[in-house]
Design a protein that fits this description.
The complex is a heterodimer of chains A (about 140) and B (about 100). With about 140 residues, chain A is an alpha/beta fold. Chain A has 3 helices and 7 strands, in the order βαββαβββαβ. Chain A has one domain: Hypothetical Protein Ychn, Chain: A (3-Layer(aba) Sandwich), CATH 3.40.1260. The longest helix of chain A is centred in the first third of the chain and has 14 residues. Chain B has a single domain, classed as DsrEFH-like (Hypothetical Protein Ychn, Chain: A), CATH 3.40.1260.10. The longest helix of chain B is centred in the last third of the chain and has 10 residues. The chains are: A alpha/beta (about 140), B alpha/beta (about 100). At the A-B interface, loops of A face helix 3 of B.
Chain lengths: ~140, ~100
């Protein structure tokens, strides 16, 4: 690596937003999006997740793939907090359209190092208008 | 005739087209992401509620379970089948049309 390139620990931190718009088990998008986000977080980037459209189904509680013969990656969402991901945005309009409420979503938390490692909720319900600003303020937006 | 739908009604129009082009008396089985069409209280629920009187609707249980959708969340009148039930429907009906 030349010394002009940014190494993972050189201190260049960008705001990454991972936009997830697909349901979890009908295609690979959801699992790929989650894994790539964890990679970004492992490289000490400022990672936020957005769940929009059918992407909100990824966060549904009680997913159990034992009868469809695929890997259940649903528990992996709980690892986001361990990778220092603190921001998950779920679009309210997408939830409502699907007859879901926040109670249907996994209660994901992170430990806040600035507050004696208290567990804090990661999921923020946001309106489309708020999400516009979040997308606009991100440095890198990746879509799954 | 048995019609299967495997796409989410929020992402694709497979369910709408299936309902438009299937005859009254048809059996409609929702599988994979198609099961989201069975959610009570969603914007897509009218697709099914408007056809409950002249179509028989089924949903594949293992696909519901994978997606964390409890049977209490389904539109009333939809029957849950397992894989054996899927096979039984496919054998009983003269033809199968897959809306993908």
């Amino acid at each position: 690596m030349s010394d002009q390139e940014a190494s993972p620990t050189s201190g260049i931190i960008k705001k990454f937003l991972y936009v997830n718009r697909r349901a979890p088990h009908g295609s690979n998008y959801a699992q790929e999006g989650l894994e790539v986000a964890l990679v970004g977080a492992a490289f000490e980037q400022d990672v936020a997740m957005a769940y929009i459209d059918d992407g909100v189904f990824q966060l549904k509680t009680d997913q159990d793939t034992s009868e469809i013969g695929t890997k259940n990656f649903s528990p992996t969402y709980r690892a986001l907090g361990d990778y220092d991901v603190k921001k998950i945005y779920v679009e309210k309009e997408s939830l409502e359209k699907r007859g879901l409420t926040q109670d249907d979503l996994m209660p994901l938390v992170y430990e806040d190092e600035d507050d004696d490692w208290a567990e804090k909720p990661m999921i923020n319900l946001v309106s489309a208008a708020e999400l516009q600003d979040i997308i606009e303020q991100s440095d890198v937006v990746l879509n799954f | 005739m048995l019609h299967t739908v495997n796409k989410s009604p929020f992402e694709k129009n497979s369910l709408q087209t299936c309902l438009r082009l299937s005859q009254p008396g048809s059996s409609i089985l929702l599988i994979e992401d198609g099961i989201y069409g069975a959610l009570k209280g969603s914007d897509a629920a009218a697709n099914i509620t408007e056809h409950l009187q002249d179509r028989q609707f089924y949903v594949l249980g293992p696909d519901l379970k994978a997606r964390g959708i409890d049977k209490s969340r389904l539109i009333d009148g939809i029957e849950i089948v397992d894989y054996d039930g899927f096979v039984k429907l496919a054998v009983e009906e003269p033809k199968v049309q897959s809306w993908m």
